[in-house]
Amino acid sequence: MEENIQNSQNKMGAMPVPKLLIHMGIPMILSMLGQALYNFVDTYFVSQIPDTATVSEMGDKAINALTLAYPVQMVMIAICVGIGIATNSMLAHNLGRKNREQASRVAGNAMFLCFVFLIITVLFGLFAARAFIASQTSDPVVIQLGTSYLRIVTVCSIGSIGYMCVEKVVMGCGNTRATMIGQLSGAIVNIVLDPILIFGLFGLPALGVVGAAWATVIGQVVSFLIICYVNFFRNKEIDNRLRYLLPHRNILKQMFPIAGPAIVMQIMTPVMSYGMNLILGLVNAYAVTAWGVYYKVQYFMYMAVYGLNNASIAVTAYNFGSRRGDRIKQSIKFSLLYTILMMAVGTALVQLFARQLIGLFSITESSARLALYALRIATLGFTLGGVNIILQGVCQALEGGVSSLIVSLLRMAAVILPLAWLFVRVDPSGGLVWLALPLAELAGLIAAVLLTRRRYRICMKRIKEPAEDAGE
Description:
Oligomer: single chain
Strand content: under 5%
């Protein structure tokens, strides 16, 4: 009787899975799209910065600066998402086992780890931001713009890091609507402040790229404050006590096998972006700008899949903890179905409106031509990439972090970077290089299918074994 009451209190164990994934996934998709809006909107507005008496092609240079700074922002996201994936999975798993005490410890230790990372990020911004930008370009204008932007978003990253940490706690408890409200609220603030601070509206000074950085961090703080209110005053699934913030050795030992591979997996994205910046720099500066524009569009598309994936991880992990193999199977099946439909539609829309999307950015004709070509070719791998993300999430939810890492290494480094370098050598004009993206996704998909099947069989076998005591 008591167990049935508890199950009814958490929809992840009771609501029909197809409806549950939509119910949890749509708010998460909107939340992740809100996160993608930050960089998309920043890129759009800085591309409109007018030339000065001493600097021409200022829009291109501003986009270039943000593109070079972006790998660091992606590392920040990667580490927080890695910790968050472990938090989401372990939290949902323990809630599925009705272990509230352990779930509360997981949430507290996740916040402790994010606080440590915040200190490291601030130190990087103070002492290493300029060196990082200068490692990718010799243009003094781009170095100055990139350093200013990167320093602000790292030193003032409490909103970004804090939000991503608390968000995953709330999400692991099944409340995805709150994460949507928090993320979209911050994105709206960023959109409103961007033109005001960049161009100096309403009597304020025109700050240019620096204004974009300040708009971003203010929006992130707004999101952080909203999600903190939800977690600390409205979340009834766990206990938020100070003692849970103290590092707990057993919890951290359980988190690292999930978070470690997840962090490395997520870091593959900025590594790939940094590597592509260097490879495309062998072509020309226009190719780097084109990559920056393409990546904003691609990032926007993939954020929708990551939103659904976050919901899928929570649902799969919760039911793994509850030993409900039927619901795990349904979660995988419908997550893949929804993703394939979503990415197929997205690919068609990008193909149809590629020219209009590129036209949103005020860049030179040379950069626009390359960005258009990149969209036409690279979007062929969008659906494959979406399936890869979902299968990696399944592995993470079923305690297969290493399997997920192997797929990421293939997609983000072992295939794409050597291929891109080879294609640039074969075709110095940069035409072939974009084929590396869909080919890397194809290689990742082959590995993802094989590894996910293996992980699924192992976990189904475990579910059939006698249950452990939930209090252990």
